[in-house]
Design a protein that fits this description.
The protein is mainly alpha-helical and about 290 residues long. It folds into 2 domains: about 10-65, no CATH class; about 70-280, no CATH class. Helix content is about 70%, strand content about 5%. The protein has 13 helices and 2 strands, in the order βαβαααααααααααα. It has helices at about 30-45, 60-65, 70-85, 95-105, 110-125, 130-140, 145-160, 170-180, 185-190, 200-205, 210-225, 230-250, 255-280; strands at about 20-25, 55-60. Strands 1-2 form a two-stranded parallel sheet. The protein is globular, with a radius of gyration of 18 Å. About 50% of the residues are buried.
């Protein structure tokens, strides 16, 4: 999972390339101040938005930013929902869904889609762990990566275009939230494949603050949008991402930032399909919108 600009993140690494640097040593003030100060970092990492010209992050603050991933997902979901309301007056469901898929990719900077491609390429390699990790860090998308991207984007388009009208807005909001929350179960259950990099940063930074904040946010949004059924959606998202991480971990003996990104993308579309199936069968209704 890499972003070309502003950071040089190879193999899902977060290190001092480009304009983003993580550094140790300086301690911020109180815990609450540090925690809130991490919100812009989460926004800068998960979207193309840059709030400062030079992003220099403390290790501690970057770790706390993990707790706000679902909040950034809520922002992304809100953008999708608002745009969908406008497009509904102009376009049929299919082309409107295609535009929403494009907007989703743009507002996330293609970060998680990059993880999908790199993870697929690495898993397709007929070689040992080192060879797979090497392919994942190269950044050259191969046939497996292209196929995975096409399948994920098609699945997103199919899901969005098929969302039930009475649950559409709620689904567009909740899926990005729960998808970005999945860094918590994946980071808690799997060790990083390398001793440094984004996978290691997430694994080491979940506790004691980030995981509880992220989980409470995800539960609150899921409950507000779908009631008790929303809590089931949290479980479904977590299971989807964990299955992806488990498959990758068996081959590379851990997870990388790319694997986290792939899990986020898969969890997001699985949540949408779960909403479609649940609403169609009367198992769930939207509590809001």
């Amino acid at each position: 999972m890499r972003r070309r600009l502003p950071a040089a993140r190879r193999d899902g690494d977060v290190r001092g390339g480009g304009r983003v640097r993580l550094r140790r040593g300086h301690r911020a003030g109180g815990l609450s101040v540090r925690t809130l100060a991490a919100i812009p970092i989460a926004l800068e990492f998960l979207t193309p938005l840059r709030l400062r010209r030079v992003q220099t992050y403390e290790d501690r603050t970057f770790a706390q930013a993990l707790g706000w991933y679902p909040l950034i997902g809520l922002l992304i979901g809100g953008i999708l929902a608002l745009l969908d309301r406008g497009l509904a007056e102009l376009l049929p469901p299919a082309p409107a869904a295609a535009l929403l898929v494009a907007v989703l990719a743009l507002v996330s900077g293609g970060l998680h889609l990059d993880g999908v491609a790199d993870t697929a390429d690495g898993m397709a390699v007929q070689g040992d762990r080192a060879e797979r990790l090497g392919v994942m860090s190269e950044g050259n998308t191969g046939p497996a990566g292209v196929m995975a991207l096409v399948l994920v984007l098609l699945a997103e388009w199919a899901a969005i275009s098929s969302l039930p009208p009475d649950a559409r807005t709620a689904a567009l909001i909740v899926a990005p939230v729960l998808a970005r929350w999945t860094v918590v179960p994946v980071g808690a259950l799997f060790h990083p494949a390398r001793p440094r990099g984004l996978g290691h940063s997430i694994h080491a930074g979940l506790w004691p603050t980030a995981a509880p904040i992220a989980t409470l946010t995800a539960l609150a949004v899921a409950g507000a949008t779908f009631g008790v059924a929303g809590l089931v959606l949290v479980l479904i998202a977590g299971v989807a991402a964990v299955l992806i991480a488990g498959a990758a971990s068996r081959l590379i003996h851990g997870v990388t930032g790319d694997v986290f990104g792939a899990g986020i993308e898969v969890a997001q579309v699985v949540v949408w399909f779960a909403v479609i199936a649940s609403v169609e069968r009367g198992w769930a209704t939207a509590a809001l919108f």
